[in-house]
Structure to design on (673 residues):
């Protein structure tokens, strides 16, 4: 074979591989995206269209009714449902609960976890196996701790505080209670992820700063944290999404004052109509959108953060 | 300006002793190079001077201050690291200014001094760049500028040239030596490269296995290595070593190895007769001679390496190890030729076969 022919053959093989790779990725993408597509188009369907068979791939008669119901139902004024597919809730209270609980718990977990990871990385806190044990807590299924936690939140804590402090403080059905729990549950992930980012920062950078007279905190602030900033953004997004979609613990430990979005989503069912797929799809879309927007906003960091291990030393 | 004294310095990591009791006086303004193979404790020693590693025992004195337990940042040192340790997220300017900012120097003064240091290291046009955008040589200069900007009295350097390519490394050697003359500070420099040590140092401290084997000026170390180890560490090609014994012969004393006997001079104690020894001779002191010359040993050329200004001639003489001679490049020999060699008896090194100590 002449080099030119060989080159053409190699080019063909390469092209064929590219086509195959793209076909696989497009297929996989379609499988991943289908539920999201279905959710979004259902959110624009009226009740008659929710469960038709054969399915309508697009709304025949697009409507904003589901969003209207979810966003504008006036809890105070109406009090009861106006029609069979309506429920006496709107999204605003839950949205506020979810945003507050998830941002605060994720921020606290990020802050604590970053410093803990630094301590584990640089001072070997907890011994050499501790870093591998951190994620063990995640091996406990949430259902196992849900009920015991309810006992503590609803009975033990109020009882203890009343006995000791003369005021009854309950964690049950409070934003503080859920936030504290989410902080605890996501902290291992933060430690685990931040550990891998911090380990990427060469010790000598800190040594250099130290020799120039910089203290530990100054070095952390000026050298270490800026270098792991992308990692912190990625970690924050990761644990935020974990909390944002958490259902079981929130369901067990709240009602009726606090309700996060996944819990609210589940409330949309009526005696006569069963599950209210339209409003549920609308809420599902509303829950998904902020996460996608956040992802787009921090795309630069995501790429940097997920390609860790490639940082130039 | 400050000299450094290390007193009985010991560092143990668990049960492993990295540095096993070092005594060393580094003179004020001196360029001292700590050299040795990897794992010999040279970097640990440097880090004990810098304060990054706390000694298990002994003292570090800088100037007239005992700083053994003083925080690294308060010792008034400048250090260049092996990987340079430039802050990748800061500009070159901010990198150089870091030490001054820590000390809360006035911003105008910082600008003036950073520019001055950049000027001195010929990196003024790079000030707005990131370290990642600099070439290896430029990054090297940035690291040096960052060190000199704070005017330390002692400069510590941990294999700073190891990341450069061979040509640049040789150029930087000259530049570092020049920098030392300009600044007049005390330089303590760690390397495993004997050529770097020979070319730059005022004095060299050779380390092996956590101890200092010899301290001396480069030529002194080359000409009179204090031990088998030092003799083998310095010089390219490596010194020829012959195993044998010291024997008394007809009122004189001689070294007898496989296939050759070499008369030893009066510097060797006659009482050593019978002792196992290693004879060292550098390649330039192995001479190709005529067959009738006194002490000539027959040998066979096995390999020839022409270097241009000189030629390395490897030969077998019947001993266990192949030997090498540095010869005139015009000498008409080829591999397989039979030749005669003799050793320059004025330049022999005799070491104890056991502990490697020098015997002559």
């Amino acid at each position: 074979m002449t080099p030119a022919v060989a080159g053409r053959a190699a080019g063909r093989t390469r092209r064929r591989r590219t086509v195959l790779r793209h076909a696989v990725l497009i297929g996989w993408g379609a499988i991943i995206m289908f539920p999201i597509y279905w959710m979004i188009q259902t959110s624009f369907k009226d009740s008659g269209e929710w469960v038709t068979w054969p399915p309508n791939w697009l709304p025949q008669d697009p409507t904003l009714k589901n969003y209207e119901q979810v966003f504008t139902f006036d809890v105070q004024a109406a009090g009861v449902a106006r029609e069979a597919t309506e429920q006496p809730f709107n999204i605003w209270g839950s949205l506020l609960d979810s945003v507050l609980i998830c941002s605060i718990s994720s921020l606290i977990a990020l802050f604590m976890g970053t410093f803990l990871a630094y301590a584990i990385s640089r001072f070997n806190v907890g011994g050499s196996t501790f870093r591998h044990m951190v994620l063990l807590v995640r091996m406990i299924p949430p259902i196992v701790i849900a009920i015991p936690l309810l006992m503590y939140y609803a009975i033990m804590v109020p009882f203890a505080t009343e006995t000791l402090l003369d005021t009854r403080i309950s964690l049950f059905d409070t934003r503080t209670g859920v936030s504290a729990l989410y902080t605890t549950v996501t902290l291992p992930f933060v430690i685990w992820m931040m550990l891998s980012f911090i380990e990427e920062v060469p010790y000598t950078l800190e040594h250099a700063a130290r020799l120039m007279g910089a203290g530990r905190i100054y070095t952390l602030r000026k050298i270490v944290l800026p270098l792991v900033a992308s990692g912190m953004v990625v970690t924050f997004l990761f644990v935020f999404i974990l909390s944002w979609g958490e259902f079981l613990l929130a369901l067990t430990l709240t009602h009726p004052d606090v309700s996060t979005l996944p819990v609210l989503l589940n409330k949309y069912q009526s005696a006569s109509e069963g599950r209210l797929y339209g409003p549920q799809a609308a809420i599902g879309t509303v829950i998904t959108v902020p996460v996608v927007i956040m992802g787009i906003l921090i795309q630069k960091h995501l790429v940097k953060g997920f390609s860790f291990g490639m940082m130039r030393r | 300006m400050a000299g450094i004294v290390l007193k009985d310095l010991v560092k143990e990591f668990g049960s492993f002793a990295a540095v096993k009791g070092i005594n060393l006086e580094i003179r004020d303004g001196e360029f001292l190079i700590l050299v040795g193979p990897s794992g010999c404790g040279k970097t640990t020693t440097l880090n004990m001077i810098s304060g990054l590693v706390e000694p298990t025992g002994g003292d570090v004195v800088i100037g007239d201050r005992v700083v053994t337990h003083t925080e690294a940042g308060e010792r008034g040192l400048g250090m260049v690291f092996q990987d340079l340790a430039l802050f990748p997220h800061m500009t070159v300017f901010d990198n150089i200014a870091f030490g001054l900012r820590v000390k809360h120097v006035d911003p105008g003064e910082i600008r003036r001094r950073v520019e001055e240091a950049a000027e001195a290291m010929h990196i003024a046009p790079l000030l707005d760049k990131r370290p990642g955008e600099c070439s290896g040589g430029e990054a090297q200069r940035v690291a040096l500028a960052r060190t000199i900007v704070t005017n330390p009295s002692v400069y510590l350097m941990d294999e700073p040239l190891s990341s450069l390519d061979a040509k640049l490394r040789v150029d930087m050697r000259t530049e570092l030596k020049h920098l030392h003359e300009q600044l007049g500070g005390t330089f303590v420099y760690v390397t495993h490269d004997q050529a770097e040590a020979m070319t730059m140092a005022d004095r060299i401290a050779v380390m092996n296995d956590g101890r200092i084997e010899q301290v001396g000026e480069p030529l002194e170390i080359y000409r009179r290595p204090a031990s088998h180890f030092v003799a083998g560490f310095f010089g390219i090609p490596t010194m020829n070593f012959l195993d044998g014994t010291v024997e008394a012969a007809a009122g004189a004393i001689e070294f007898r190895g496989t296939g050759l006997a070499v008369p030893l001079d009066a510097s060797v104690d006659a009482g050593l007769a019978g002792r196992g020894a290693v004879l060292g001779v550098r390649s330039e002191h192995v001479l190709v001679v005529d067959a009738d010359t006194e002490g000539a040993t027959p040998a066979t050329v096995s390999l020839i390496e022409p270097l241009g200004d000189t030629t390395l001639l490897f030969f077998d003489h019947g001993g266990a190890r192949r030997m090498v001679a540095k010869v005139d490049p015009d000498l008409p020999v080829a591999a397989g030729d039979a030749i005669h060699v003799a050793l320059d008896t004025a330049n022999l090194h005799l070491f104890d076969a056991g502990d490697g100590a020098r015997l002559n």
Notes: The helical segments of chain B are 42-50, 92-102, 107-120, 136-148, 166-183, 194-200, 218-223, 228-233. The radius of gyration of chain B is 25 Å.
